[in-house]
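Internal tracking record. Fields below are filled automatically when a chain is submitted to the structure queue. Please do not edit lines marked as system-generated. If the sequence contains nonstandard residues, flag them in the REMARKS field before resubmitting.
Queue: standard
Priority: normal
Entity type: single polypeptide chain
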Amino acid sequence: MSKEKVFLKSLGIIFILIGIIFNPWIVQYFFSPDKKFDYLWKSFFITIFNILIFITGYLIIKYNEKFMLNKKLNYNKLAGLGLILFSLIANPFIIERIFLRKFILTKPFIINNIIIEFIFFIIGFLMLNNFKHINKIIINYSTYIKKILISIKNKIKSNYKNILILLFVLTIILILFEFILILDVNLNYSKTKYSEISKIKIFGNLDSTIDGINSDLFRDVEHSIENNDNKIRIAFLGDSYTMGSSIPNSNDIFSSIFRDKLNKEFPNQYEVFNFGMGGANILDLYWILNHSVLKYEPDYIIYSFFQNDMEFYEHNIDYRYCFSLKGIKNEILIQNYLNDKKYNIMFRYELFNSQNKITLTVNEDYYGWKCFKYIINKLGSNNNINSKLIAFILPIEEKRIDGNYIMINETKNTFRKNNIKIIENAQKLFSNATRNLTKDEIYVNFSGGDMHFNEKINKILADILYDNMLEIIK
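SYSTEM-GENERATED OUTPUT FOLLOWS
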């Protein structure tokens, strides 16, 4: 068989392999943080592309004689040029624009992609100059791999007993490790024992320099537990945005502005509480709800959700508390333990950009997302909570919607499944109100990295809430 035939058949096989491997499911799984495409048409686009590649490979193998009719055509140089073009086109910026999403570009992905591009470029360059050497390398490499596989097969046959013993020992170690983790959860994360630890973690993060801290350690006025005046009670629950971090005057927080508008329109009819806490995530907020909010028996609880409520840091309640609540059932703790280490490394060394980090939080493998879904499900089905729950998904500036839409949609679906009312038009109203504002006009100190909403935006949030809540409480 001539070298041209060998080359063309090899090229055809490569095309078929690319056609099989480069399918929507593989692309989603390896390159998309949440294993999904943003638009369905991209899935069809990739499907059509790999079908065409597959057919091309098949035709090259079956009809290679016809491909060789032009004797003057240098197949080696043609293939080399093709590989060089592929290495230049298939860069992370083009791939993420065409196939995936804007926020998929993580550091590992870029590095891996550049390495692959470099390999293709070098092979293509060598093929342009001297294909014979490449052909010999491929043949020698294939023979070498075959010898290694035969050697491995023989070693397995001769040492299968030792391999079985090793697998058995590893299994016992994993079972023991799992048992230790289960024991750790049951002993150290029980409701009673972990309650005081949680209190220290939550309130230990409180900035004592801000104004308006009441005896319950929240940024709010004093309230009595008894509702002697029979007022309708509305409680806000949330993180630093609800607390009003970086807002000097507590009266400029959206919950306070909302309170003042209600009292002006309906004197002595409503009592508004602010249970916002800086740095709180979903488990912290669940603890606050049970230990601080419910004792006041509010008629309405407005959960001001923000996109980082699913993230876990050292100052948050440990995610293993979710296991002690039986929030994550029928799961291997080792897997979550390893995930914990993986995500801590990713957070510490910033192995993703901000948009990928947001998408990561709704990944089914991430324990923060599991805890969030469990807590929302628990709230939606809890007959002991007489308050009407309302989800106020804090809106974001219009330019950031595309990168956050998966997180927003998944969160909304979770609320809806558990019959929790959502302020549906918040994002639309917010976009209309802030479309012509700069980042410096939206955030407290954008250039300095403080992305909390300023007083002007807090007033916009209060107006959105006020109009919607009037419809709900009528």
